[in-house]
Each structure stands twice: as C-alpha cells, then as structure tokens.
Amino acid sequence: MRLDINELRKINAFMFDYTSDVSEKNIKTKAMKYQKKDKLFFIVGTRWPRKYKKRTIDTNYKNIRIIKHDLFAELIRIDGDLLKNFEYIIELNYVFDLNALKEFFIDIKKDLLNILGRYLFVNEDLKRDLKKIGIDHSDFF
Q: In 101, 110, 113, 138, which residue has its Cα 20 to 30 A from 62's Cα atom?
C-alpha cells in the first residue's frame, strides 16, 4: 500500500469509512470531513469500479488509502461465517438489492442483541466502549 515507515511512526490510530462511491469528488469530501494528520484513514470501496484492476486507488494524501472491500477483509482478518456474511452484504450492494440488505441488517441486529444484550450501533454504547479503553470519542470523530 506504499506506506512510508517514517510517516507510520506519526500515526496513532486507524479510521475506516465505507463508500460505494470512490469518485475523486467523494474522496475529497471525505478527506475534508474526516482526515486527521495523526490517523491513517482507510476508505473502503464497497462497489469497486470494474475499470480498477488493483485493490487500491492512489491519492495525493499521505495518510489516506482507498482500498477494495476484499483487501479490507484481509487487513482486519475477517474469516469463516463472518467473511461469508460480509461477502453476501457486498454482493447485495453490487446488485442494489436494498430490501434483502435491510432484512439482513435487521437479522444481524437481532442476533447481536441476543448475544450481547445491546445493539452495537448506538452512539452512546460506542462512546462508553471507547472510554473503557482510554479513547476520547471526540478525538476519534
């Protein structure tokens, strides 16, 4: 991914954003909104244009990398059933089956609620979880 080791020493966190639009205009908008000099910002393309044969798209930003969804799965080591679910979600996104995607999301939320006793997608839960590990929510977002 052409990361400079000297620049990596300045990085104290990784951020991920997901988008089906990897156009230059959208990337610039995301860079302006989320980029922080001490964070490595990965923009995960969930609908990769057929013309791009590589799994990354080069940018002029030192700490922003645009990566294909399958490279993201490798980076964070998604495997097994979770990888199958991830690939299924990506496929639904490619074919614009929003009804099936919504149903799948509702099922996952139910499963997580049953397993964890709460939703993972509630902002207050995220703030509390980050605080437990010593990260201030406002530093991150």
A: 138
